[in-house]
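[scheduler] slot 2 assigned
[scheduler] job type: sequence-to-structure, two independent chains
[scheduler] chain ordering preserved from manifest
[runner] begin chain α
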Amino acid sequence: MLGAPPAGAAPISDAGFRREVKAARPYRKPRGLRNGFDGNHMNQVMVVERSPAIRVKLEMAGKPQAAQLPDGTIVVAGFIEPPVHKESRCTLQYSTDNGATFGEPRVLEMEGRSNGFRCLKDGTLLLGHGGARQGISRSTDGGKTWSTFYIPGDIVPGDKDLRLGECHGPVELADGTLVVHLARTVGHYEWAAYLIRSKDGGRTWGDPTRVPTETDSDEISYERLPNGRILGITRSSAAIIKRDHLEDVVPGGREAILGSEAGDAPYSFYSDDGGRTWSKPKPTGLGVLQAAGAYPLLLRDGRLLLLYGNRFFPYGTQAVGSRDGGLTWDIEHPILLSWHSWSGYCGHPRSVQLRDGTILTGYYTHRIDTDGDGPVDTARNAPTPRHNREDTGEVVRWRVPDNWPPRRRA
């Protein structure tokens, strides 16, 4: 009979095959930092389902991040740098057709890269940015004019560099307090993490609280959950893997390198008292180099997304989901929002849920545009890509599937 198993053989069940995979010989991966195999479990295949999306390549928009104004206008913040522009500056561009097209970029006076962008409930735009100084700028007219609060150097202990980090931007709590991440350098690839607050709609910032990631986290994004809990997702270095003996818990943890992005992975923690005290960070289930960065997004229906830059094969931007407020993440059913970066220079997928329920995700990707054969990535001695040139900003508008992530069977 066609399709029947050979005589004496019984079809293997899914559970039976999973046992075989668990006992299979490990795949010997190539060695080296950021070689594309980091964190990848090789004894698996991917089942792919295509879904429609609208993707737009942006100009002058390094690591773009979108917000939506009360009138429906979409605003994207990014940055432009030398050699494309004489100085590093933040940029804005607008869409009035729900992200299908964008107008010409406008270069702002704010120096440095954009580091977090939000539209508050009252329509106020807040834009974090960092160059020689770290600032948070505020606009009440849709981005036409801005006022800036520069973060004082003595706001937290220490005398080394302050950085807002490439976070999601300020989070609005139930009482109107705004909170955002701030880090201070304490050593090589070591940062002390803090939460700072604003009680006046982002005009001034202070009241810092130390966040217990110790000295290895410079990028943390927060989301407020329906029960009032603040969920934090931190991009932490291999120090936490070594310190907490997570080598066999975090995928790729045994090869995680101290003092390098090749050891970074995302961890979650939370606060139930407005950010004054925090739980101990725990692994999300994602591996090393799946944290460039990692950003939580609460959907209106209560589901939670975690969007992240994937810096091993396939390079690009991905998302996983949670139905329990981020206590667990369904790592087995990722959504590949982009998969076309030529190297691991990609990611930072910050997102907003639009009025119609779709998601607009901004990210960057490493593109190759040459007249002939040429070096493709840094592993082949190519120069580091530059934003607004080889690295380009894109936005993708997509819809979260109704039945995703799949509900667990009882």
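[runner] end chain α
[runner] begin chain β
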Amino acid sequence: MIRGTLAGVFLAVFLAACQPAAPIQPEAAAPAQEPTSVATPAIETRGTMLEPQGFIRQVHDPVIAHENGTYYIFHTGARIPFICSEDMVTWEFCGRIFESNPAWTIDINPDLTDIWAPDISFFNDRWHLYYAVSSFGTQNSGIGLATNVTLDPNSPDYQWVDHGLVLRSQPGDRWNAIDPNLVLDGNGEPWLAWGSFWQGIWMRKIDASTGLLDETNPDVYHLADRSADPDHNPAIEAAFIVQRNGMWYLFASFDQCCQGVNSTYNVRVGRSDSLTGPYVDRDGVPMLEGGGTLILSEYGQWKGPGHNGMLVEDGVYWMVYHAYDAQVVGTPKLRIESLSWDSEGWPSLPSQTPAQ
């Protein structure tokens, strides 16, 4: 995400939407006939909304994992904070990844306060936490990696090991090296997606043995881009990719985060039969041409929802994201719900569906 220090933004808010497309209208019929109607795909799997409680304030850019009966959510903040829960409802603060900022980050931001947008994944017998270091509105950014054999801070084996810089961007590059997301392909091989604004979302192969870039496969894949839109709005970031029934789904956040109740964040989705694309939305518009089907926008008191992470368990696709609470001066809080899926294989969310 492209942002400044979150604490400053929230203090400014303290002191101080997208709408679904209109339904297709039926064609006029002969006077003696009933009007035709447009078929709506049946919901085959219905999602669930949770109401998380406890330590959920100031949770921004969450990502979720599950190990040995405990759920862990990592999020943007000083030294990467994380919270824990046994039921995904009641959460408590459980610690921070680093005791101090990794030394390599000084070259990118010597005044670093918050580490951004962590991503958690498991491969090669260990957990991999990718994270972003930058400052507001710049391409002077980097993605780092830390690993651990367990997420349980009470385990004697618990120790985060930082492996330094994975990917760097500088002014003039096609991408901004923040908002990492690690995804395993059909063979269990890791790939890293990243990107924010500029020319959008990108992907490259990762070496499974090191967690760093695979130097034997230097190809870079362009997945999504809004910079060529008619309105020239480049605001796309926070990719998260999952697989379902042979299709790959790319979720991305559009528009502006980090402005409290004035945030315009929303989540869009496209899909592809190949991990590396091309991804298209429900209307067939390529995500490289600004496409993306709206799946999450503001609802009730929750403004600017976005930067989602996902956990797939027993066929259920749980989505975590942050949203700004209009009833609490725009404070970002954790939100959780699972996806509904229709008969055409497209997802939706309970929060976006009017109560029946």
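[runner] end chain β
[qc] chain β: The longest helix spans residues 6-15.
[scheduler] slot 2 released
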